[in-house]
Every structure is written in C-alpha cells, then in structure tokens.
Amino acid sequence: MDPEASRTARESLDLAFGMSNILDTGLDRHTLSVLIALCDLGLNPEALAAVVKELQKEPSSSGGTTPSVN
C-alpha cells in the first residue's frame, strides 16, 4: 500500500473510531477495523451489527479464552 493510501485509510479509521466513541458503541479500534474490512468484502452491515449486538449481550468468559465445544 502506498503512503498516501495508508494515510487515507488511517484517517478514515480515525474518523470512524471517533464516531463510534461518540455513539458509545464500545468497539475498540481493531474490532472496528475488522468490521469495516468485512463490509468492504461485501458482508451485510446490518447482519454484522446484529452479530455484534448479540455478542455484546453475552457475558465474557473467564480468562478471555474461547469456550470449548463438547
């Protein structure tokens, strides 16, 4: 990625992160970046929003590990 494109991408993420903070979404910069990338790949933004809302409802697992599936 050339320096100008990199700067533009960083500024866009900064703007989106600022808006995210104003709206009190609770998303960190990395998560927001991943969600934007998924939208760029064609995933439905409304479906992603629904998934994020559902995941935010779930209590955190202890230690931050992925729960095992039996």
Automatic annotation (TrEMBL):
<dbReference type="GO" id="GO:0090307">
    <property type="term" value="P:mitotic spindle assembly"/>
</dbReference>
<dbReference type="GO" id="GO:0000931">
    <property type="term" value="C:gamma-tubulin ring complex"/>
</dbReference>
<dbReference type="GO" id="GO:0031021">
    <property type="term" value="C:interphase microtubule organizing center"/>
</dbReference>
<keyword id="KW-0206">Cytoskeleton</keyword>
<dbReference type="Pfam" id="PF12554">
    <property type="entry name" value="MOZART1"/>
</dbReference>
<protein>
    <recommendedName>
        <fullName>Mitotic-spindle organizing protein 1B</fullName>
    </recommendedName>
</protein>
<dbReference type="GO" id="GO:0005819">
    <property type="term" value="C:spindle"/>
</dbReference>
<dbReference type="InterPro" id="IPR022214">
    <property type="entry name" value="MZT1"/>
</dbReference>
<keyword id="KW-0963">Cytoplasm</keyword>
<comment type="similarity">
    <text>Belongs to the MOZART1 family.</text>
</comment>
<dbReference type="GO" id="GO:0051415">
    <property type="term" value="P:microtubule nucleation by interphase microtubule organizing center"/>
</dbReference>
<dbReference type="GO" id="GO:0033566">
    <property type="term" value="P:gamma-tubulin complex localization"/>
</dbReference>
